Amino acid sequence: MQKFVNATMLAVALCAAGTVQAQDNASEARAVDGRAVKVVLDGVIDLQLRQGASAALTISGDRRYLPKVVVTQSGDTLRIGTDLKGIQMSRPNLRAELTLPNLAEVVSAGVGSADVQGFKGEQLRVALDGAGAVRLAGQYRNLDAHLNGAGSMTINAGHAERVDLNLRGAGQMVVSGQSRDLHARLGGAGSLDAQQLQADSVNLDMTGLGGATVYAKSAANLRLSGLGSATVYGKPATRNASARGLGHVKWQ
C-alpha cells in the first residue's frame, strides 16, 4: 500500500513538473526585412500574419523548442519551419507573429495553422499543401487559392474581380465575399462551400469525389464528370450544365 501511495505521489509530482515545464514560455525576435512578399510555413508551428508599415517577426512558445524554429529568407521569399527530430510526446506550442508591408503568396506545407488578415493588393496566391488550416481575410483584385492537402481553408475574399479555386486534396474550402468571376476546379475528394461568395458569373469544373455549393447572380457554367454533385444558388438567368459522371446539378 505504501509503495502504491509513493508511486502515486511520484506520478503526480512528475505531471506537475511537466506542466510547469510546458508552461515555461518565451519569445524572441527574428531577423526579416521588407523585401519578403512570399511566405512558406512548414513543420509544427502556427502563424499569425498581419499587414504593417515595417517587417517584423516574433517567435513564441515553449522555451525548449524555440531553437528548433528555423527562419530563412532568400530574396522575396521567407520560410518559417521547425527542425524537430525524434518522437514528440505532445505538439510543441510554437507561434510565429509576422508583420509585412505587402503580401503576394502564402503557402502552408506543415500541420500548423495560418491566420492571414488585413492585406490588400492586386493579386494573391494562397496554397495549403499540408494538413493544417488556413484562414484568410483580405482585399485583392485577383485571388488564387489551392487546396492540395488534407486540411481546411476559410477565405473571405472581400470585393474581388476574379477568384480562382483549385481543390486537389481531401480537405474543405469555405469561401465568402463578392466577386465578378468565380472559376473553381475540383479534382480530389475535398468539398467546396462557396455559397457565401456572391459571384456574378461562375465556372465550375468537377472531376473528383467531392461536392460543391456556389452562388451565381447572372450566369453559371458547370461541367461534372466525377462522383460529386453541385448546388447552385442565386437563380442565375444563364444556366449551362453537363453531368457525365454520377453527380448531378441542383438549382436553388
Automatic annotation (TrEMBL):
Residues 38-236 form the Putative auto-transporter adhesin head GIN domain. It holds the Pfam family DUF2807. Keywords: Signal. InterPro entries: DUF2807. The keyword Cell division does not apply. Residues 1-22 form the signal peptide. This is DUF2807 domain-containing protein. It comes from [Empedobacter] haloabium.
